[in-house]
């Protein structure tokens, strides 16, 4: 599996495992998924403290711990969304330095690791005291709690600030041929690595595309209605009949780490099969894909 080197020296597999939708209530099945991912060369696992109010990190930490002696892997998690672990309720966005530092230490404990390879700010607004956030992240790095940090955001003004004033290593955004808003952002990122979440757009880019469009996108997406989305996938199928493979090739062209979420082993098997058949796109093929896209723009939070 190809690795993407980040500027802080992380070596992340191009295809990575988004852990948000793992079947946590069936830990055996979750372990099968994780073991299969590792055996296929996936070395980056993406989670967040907020997913299932800490349980996602706990299960991932428990399972990965069993494989530590056999595999080298990286764990990425996220913080900033405060929650009540006992009541299992969200408490809202909290960018306070003391909170972020404490949250990272809680994640470290749940993940059963000595150091968090990638700690991501789980959102953020332009109103936050961003220098305090950066100071928290830098201190966590100096203290050896985290190895590197990044942000998860599509807000242009937030991205711009962290790009100029911090050492973010990565930027996570939802990115696929339909949600193509990151296209506007990526050219100015220099050596910041893009982590593309939602590469299959909940299954739109899979062999189950029609069912997913009808069931999960009956109201469309942003300015696109379901028929607009269907038109895009139909045109893209003319270029590559395997929609998952097409999306992977599109993201690979942009050098992204692809954070693919799954809820079953079968999905991961299907996805890895398509990923392993992905040939690099030529410029001509990329141009054809680009012509079929409906270009979306993130309208808010620009200044
Ligand atoms: N703000 C943030 O930072 C943020 C937000 C969201 C996600 N993330 C991260 O990004 C990761 C990926 O995001 P995502 O889970 O939204 O990605 P995604 O790839 O768009 O969606 C994953 C879902 O797609 C469906 N799917 C996957 N493979 C399939 C296949 N072969 N056939 C049919 N359906 C398939 C499954 O839905 P079903 O389970 O319904 O079958 C699966 O749960 C997450 O796991 C998480 O780590 C970050």
TrEMBL record:
Listed InterPro entries: AKR2_Oxidoreductase, NAD(P)_OxRdtase_dom_sf, NADP_OxRdtase_dom
Keywords linked to the UniProt accession: Oxidoreductase
EC number: 1.1.1.-
Domain NADP-dependent oxidoreductase: from-to ranges: 15-292
Gene Ontology MF, one: oxidoreductase activity
Top-rank taxon: Bacteria
CDD domains: AKR_AKR11C1
Pfam family, one: Aldo_ket_red
SUPFAM superfamilies for this protein: NAD(P)-linked oxidoreductase (SSF51430)
Protein name: Aldo/keto reductase
Species of origin: Corticicoccus populi
């Amino acid at each position: 599996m190809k690795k993407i080197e980040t500027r802080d020296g992380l070596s992340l597999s191009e295809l990575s495992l988004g852990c948000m939708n793992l079947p946590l209530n069936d830990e055996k099945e979750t372990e099968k998924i994780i073991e299969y991912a590792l055996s296929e060369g996936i070395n980056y696992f993406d989670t967040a403290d907020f997913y299932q109010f800490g349980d996602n990190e706990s299960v991932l930490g428990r399972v990965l711990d069993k494989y530590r002696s056999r595999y080298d892997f990286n764990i990425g998690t996220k913080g900033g969304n405060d929650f009540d672990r006992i009541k299992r309720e969200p408490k809202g966005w909290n960018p306070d330095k003391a909170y972020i530092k404490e949250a990272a230490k809680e994640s470290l404990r749940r993940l059963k690791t000595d150091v968090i390879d990638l700690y991501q700010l789980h959102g953020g607004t332009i109103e936050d005291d961003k220098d305090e956030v950066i100071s928290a992240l830098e201190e966590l790095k100096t203290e050896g709690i985290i190895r590197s940090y990044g942000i998860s955001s599509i807000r242009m003004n937030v991205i711009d600030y962290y790009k100029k004033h911090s050492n973010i290593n990565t930027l996570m955004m939802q990115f696929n041929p339909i949600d193509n808003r990151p296209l506007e952002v990526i050219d100015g990122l220099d050596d910041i690595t893009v982590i593309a979440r939602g590469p299959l757009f909940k299954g739109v880019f899979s062999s189950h595309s029609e069912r997913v469009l009808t069931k999960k996108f009956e109201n469309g997406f942003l300015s696109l209605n379901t028929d607009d989305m269907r038109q895009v996938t139909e045109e893209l199928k003319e270029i590559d009949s395997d929609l998952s493979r097409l999306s992977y090739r599109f993201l690979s062209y942009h050098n992204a780490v692809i954070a693919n979420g799954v809820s079953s082993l079968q999905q991961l098997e299907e996805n890895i099969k398509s990923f392993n058949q992905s040939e690099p796109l030529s410029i001509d093929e990329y141009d054809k894909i680009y012509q079929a896209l409906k270009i979306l723009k993130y309208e808010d939070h620009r200044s």
